[in-house]
Every structure is written in C-alpha cells, then in structure tokens.
Design brief:
The chain is of the alpha+beta class and 94 residues long. The protein has a single domain (16-86), classed as ACT domain (Alpha-Beta Plaits). Helix content is 21%, strand content 34%. The chain has helices at residues 33-39, 67-79, and strands at 16-24, 44-52, 57-65, 82-86. It has a 4-stranded antiparallel β-sheet, covered by helices on one side. The longest helix is centred in the C-terminal third of the chain and has 13 residues, at 67-79. Residues 1-6 have low confidence and may be disordered.
C-alpha cells in the first residue's frame, strides 16, 4: 500500500479538488475505501451522489488534497479493484 506523507500540507502547499466517479465491483463494495482515503491518504472527501447495493455500487466523490495525495488516493482505489473516472457534470447542485 502506498501512503502519502505530505499531510498536513506544508505551508504554502497548493490544495486541489477533483471530482471522480468510483465504481465498486462485488468484492470491493464492502471495503472501507472512502474512509481510507481520508485516514491514510489525508484526502478530504465529500460524497455528492451514490447508489450502493450488496453486489455493486458507484459514488460521485469530491476529493481535496495536494496533487501527490490525490494521485496516491486514486492509485489506492485502483489497487482495491475500484474503477475511477472523471465525473464532471454528474452532480446535483443545490
């Protein structure tokens, strides 16, 4: 498992936001993937939409952190068997 060692970000570190769609297969749907993004990779997460069943699911997720932390978080998702793709325009705004 790759971890990010850059949190808290050093003063002046630029934080970036990414909006992604995570798609979970049956074997990944019960794993605490989003929890690990915040806990291990120090990425702030915000679930915007989701549809999860016992067998599969997807989540539209906003992530905020340093570029390095976001890259490591996406790599972790892939290692867990979670498909990740861009999610621009796929969010309900209030």
């Amino acid at each position: 498992m790759t971890t990010s060692r850059s949190f808290p970000p050093s003063p002046g570190a630029e934080l970036t936001k990414r909006r992604v769609k995570l798609t979970f297969a049956r074997d990944a749907v019960t794993h605490p993937v989003i929890y690990e993004l915040g806990h291990t990779y120090e990425v702030v997460t915000n679930i915007r939409r989701a549809d999860i069943t016992r067998d599969e699911g997807w989540v539209i997720l906003e992530m905020e952190g340093t570029e390095e932390a976001l890259d490591n978080a996406e790599k972790y998702c892939a290692e867990q068997g979670v498909r990740i793709s861009a999610a621009e325009g796929d969010v309900l705004e209030s």
